[in-house]
Amino acid sequence: MASSNRGFASMDQRMQRAIAAKGGRAAHASGNAHEFSPAEARIAGRKGGEAISRDRQHMAAIGREGGHARHARAQQQRQQSDQGPQGRDEPGQQD
């Protein structure tokens, strides 16, 4: 698949930062950039946590997904350690 030279991600880092800074200044100027105090952030986080925790099935699905990801990562690490540092099954094996 060929990569394109278009879009924000393909710009150099200085250009990305300049564009992002303009967006930040515009948001502050229009009053849309609200900065939370630590106390406000705690309250907002608590409210969100309480709201999502009410849905037990959803929470169970999130936990299950995390468990699957952790198991897959552990299994991959075991396979890599079994293959040794060169990525081969046996240390003396040649191509």
TrEMBL record:
Compositionally skewed regions (Low complexity) per UniProt: 18-31, 74-86
Segments of skewed composition (Basic and acidic residues): 47-58
InterPro entries: Stress/Virulence-Domain (IPR052590)
Signal peptide annotation: none
Domain of life: Bacteria
Region span, Disordered: 1-95
Protein name: General stress protein
Annotated organism of origin: Stenotrophomonas maltophilia
